[in-house]
Amino acid sequence: MSEKTPKPLTEAQQKILDAIEKNDVLQLKSLLSEKINVNFVDGNLMSPLQHAAYKGNKEIVQLLLDQGADVNFCEHQHNYTALHFAGLSGNREVVLALLLSGAKTQETNTVGRTAAQMAAFVGHHNCVAVINNYIPKSEVDYYTRIHGLEMQQYLMPFLSDSLHKFIMEVNIHPVKVVLNLQNLAGLADHLPDIKKVVEMMCEKEMKRGPETNETMAFKFHYLAYTIDELLKFKQKKEKADDKKIDVVELFIRNLLKPGKDGHLESMDAFIKECIREFPYRESTLFRQMVTSLTGLDPPSALSIINAAINGQKGFIDNISVCSTCGEEKPAKKCSKCKAVQYCDRNCQRLHWHWHKKACQRLSQGVETTEAPVKPDAAELSSEIQNLLIS
Ligand SMILES: [Zn+2]
Ligand SMILES: [Zn+2]
């Protein structure tokens, strides 16, 4: 705990704090263009970065970090770090910006709580998840170098940024994992390498001894498993020479296939198999997941791994999620039935094959007795053009 009495602020320092208080990015930019040290504290022993983190303003936080704000600088009387304040703000972008600048996650305040624990305490589970899924970039960069007797590195350096983002993604819905593999630069063309590195990261994590983070190890296993299944599926389809539909889209479609009661049976089976294949059966986490799976009236496998990785109960229960990729609070709705939500047109398109019939039923309020329509890709896309998302 600091016993320091704060020094009076200079005029420039006060102006900086005022700009942060007013969320005035432009004003702050002009103030920072001079070479000014932003590692100072005000009368409450709070630094500009701590104030900005508490306000949850990502742009201002980044400006201060770029100006040389020390992310772990802390004289606060209750030892709240910038990361504690960010967790309290509820803005996960701010949390991530601080982590990427080296914020320590295990620092505790004077009541013995870490930033993740404080964020959980005020119900900001999105911030907890970002902290719990954080991996220093150096852990990925390790594989871009040649070690010992290796002939070459396991990971091409240009893939490092994408892979880092991929493994830190908080939304672990399998469709989101596949979409990330498609969307993060370079990954889709190097799936075998990516899989190998993620598998090695899993093994390395389990060998850390008392430092082992089982949750992270399982997450690596899950990501590698998903890549492996995608690779196997691609191989199978390429042999069958079926070029009518994109293989990745077909893989996603299979995951989203509804069983009886709309329950996603094939996705459930996919995740259960992944849990069964986790090689570290003596781990506490493995036993916990198996116990949940085999209990009376078990929750979906997705909510079990989400509870394991993100410490959250339930996935689809309370919050609205995208029907395709599980992203929370999606911005759009199916304009016809207004009963399902999506991130964007792509997510809607990927789900349309299964939603089509339900959509009709939901929007008319009657059961349809029509035979299932066999859609082809072209028909599908022209149809969906008329079904604008709103
Ligand atoms: Zn989505
Ligand atoms: Zn609909």
Automatic annotation (TrEMBL):
<protein>
    <recommendedName>
        <fullName>MYND-type domain-containing protein</fullName>
    </recommendedName>
</protein>
<dbReference type="InterPro" id="IPR002110">
    <property type="entry name" value="Ankyrin_rpt"/>
</dbReference>
<dbReference type="GO" id="GO:0008270">
    <property type="term" value="F:zinc ion binding"/>
</dbReference>
<feature type="repeat" description="ANK">
    <location>
        <begin position="44"/>
        <end position="76"/>
    </location>
</feature>
<keyword id="KW-0969">Cilium</keyword>
<keyword id="KW-0966">Cell projection</keyword>
<dbReference type="InterPro" id="IPR052452">
    <property type="entry name" value="Ankyrin-MYND_dom_contain_2"/>
</dbReference>
<dbReference type="Pfam" id="PF12796">
    <property type="entry name" value="Ank_2"/>
</dbReference>
<feature type="repeat" description="ANK">
    <location>
        <begin position="78"/>
        <end position="110"/>
    </location>
</feature>
<feature type="domain" description="MYND-type">
    <location>
        <begin position="322"/>
        <end position="359"/>
    </location>
</feature>
<dbReference type="InterPro" id="IPR036770">
    <property type="entry name" value="Ankyrin_rpt-contain_sf"/>
</dbReference>
<keyword id="KW-0863">Zinc-finger</keyword>
<keyword id="KW-0677">Repeat</keyword>
<dbReference type="GO" id="GO:0005929">
    <property type="term" value="C:cilium"/>
</dbReference>
<keyword id="KW-0040">ANK repeat</keyword>
<keyword id="KW-0479">Metal-binding</keyword>
<keyword id="KW-0862">Zinc</keyword>
<dbReference type="Pfam" id="PF01753">
    <property type="entry name" value="zf-MYND"/>
</dbReference>
<dbReference type="InterPro" id="IPR002893">
    <property type="entry name" value="Znf_MYND"/>
</dbReference>
